[in-house]
Every structure is written in C-alpha cells, then in structure tokens.
Specification:
This protein is of the alpha+beta class. Helix content is about 25%, strand content about 25%. The N and C termini lie far apart (about 60 Å).
C-alpha cells in the first residue's frame, strides 16, 4: 500500500508541475512577440518581433509600419481561438516567461518567423528557427522587405536616448488607465514622450522591466491604440489613461 501511495504522489506532483508549466486560453496580443493569456503575459520563445510602434523607412520618405503589421498578423492567427503555451524559459531582463505557443496544429513561434514577422532568437530554451528565417529572408517577407532595424537594436537605441532625461537613470514610466489597470511604458512606446510624471507625486519610474512586473505593473496592448486604425502618428496616438 505504501508503494502505491508513493506512486500516486509522484504522479500527482508531476501533473501539477506540468500544469504549472503550461497555460491555455484565449489570447490577447500585446505585440508581435507577446501574448496575454489568463492575465499572464508570455513571450513567444525563440524569436524577436519588431516593437508594435516600430517602423521601417523607405527611400521616398514613407514608413512601413512593420511593428503594427507583425502584431496584426499574430492577432489574425490567434483571434477568437484557444492558444496553448508550454513555458520553456524565463527572460530575466523582461521578467517574462517564454513559451512555445500552439493553436490547433499550428506552432505560432515558427509561423511568425516563417512569415517574416519576427527574427529568430536562439536564446530561449535552445529553440532554433534559423531555417524559417532564411526562407523568409529569401522571399523578402515582412521585416526582410527593406532595411529593417532589428528590434533589440531599435529598443537599445531608444533606451539609451531616454536615459539622459530619466530621473535616477530609470526611464520606464507608469500609467493607470480608467479601469485602474496599472501599466508600465517603455521608451519605445508611441506615447512615451506625452506621458509626464512628477517623481515627487504619484508617478513612479522603474529602472528594469522585470522589477516593474514584480511590482504588479504590466505592458499595455498596443493594438488597443490608434496605431491599429491608421498610420502611426506620435502626436495623435495616446492611450485613454489617467496619468499617475
């Protein structure tokens, strides 16, 4: 009897661990590389998508809204259906779990890279989407249609620029929306410059994204902003928030 109880305990413990390492449900798209399922934000492992507000310039001066396009492709793939994500890694700098996300028989991670909507990034759990990236690049799909700046380079550049005016070298701003949801705003947000915080009042700044998450703040969905409805214009795009 004792051995049977031991076996049952091991099975129950293993099942609990498996459930904790997997999450499923309807997905809200935060950007081309991030989903929110059951109020938990999850990065698509093995890839790096352009930020939702990121653009790519053409020689004639026009802008290709590659970040918006990537987010909308992921939204089209996931809209209204149940997504199942198996957690394979943690991105310590972002405070995000990274997972392989499946919709039916479709692996969203591989599909986004294959469509040219993200770059391969082999840092999450050893995943390798190089073959999908090479095929998308050869076909000039998505970010490979022109001189796109890799998202990590784009973000590092704007982060460095924001440091010069950030109090204490902490450039992450925070806002509370009309539903009292708490969001943190990164320097590459389309409305970053329009949100002014008084560091001596209710406003709060963070130095690290992971710390902001630990404090209960999260990334907003850029698909809820006006960048979805038309051309991105930083003078017009702003979330409906009460600045705090």
């Amino acid at each position: 009897m004792r051995w049977l109880l031991t076996v049952l305990f091991v099975i129950s413990f293993s099942t609990a661990l498996a459930a904790r390492d997997e999450i499923s449900g309807q997905a809200l798209v935060i950007d081309g590389g991030t989903l929110e399922i059951r109020n938990q934000q999850i990065a698509l492992a093995g890839l790096e998508a352009p930020d939702a507000a990121q653009t790519m310039p053409w020689p004639d001066g026009t802008l290709d809204l590659i970040g918006r396009g990537s987010a909308l492709v992921l939204r089209a793939l996931t809209h209204g259906d149940t997504v199942r994500c198996k957690i394979v890694a943690t991105r310590s700098d972002e405070g995000l779990k990274a997972g392989i996300c499946i919709l039916g028989d479709l692996e969203l991670n591989a599909e986004m890279v294959a469509r040219g909507q993200a770059w391969a990034k082999a840092e999450d759990g050893g995943l390798d989407y190089t073959a999908q990236e090479l095929a998308a690049r050869a076909a000039k799909l998505g970010v490979w249609r022109g001189p796109a700046e890799r998202a990590s380079v784009f973000r590092a550049r704007l982060w460095q620029s924001a440091l010069s005016s950030a109090p204490g070298g902490c450039p992450i701003k925070t806002i509370i929306d009309r539903n009292k949801d708490r969001f943190y705003i990164l320097p590459w947000s389309p409305w970053y410059e329009r949100i002014a915080l008084d560091q001596n009042a209710a406003g709060r700044w963070f130095c690290k994204e992971s710390v902001a998450r630990e404090a209960g703040w999260r990334r907003p969905s850029f698909l809820m902003s006006s960048i979805v409805m038309g051309a991105y214009n930083p003078s017009q795009s702003q979330p409906a928030v009460d600045e705090k």
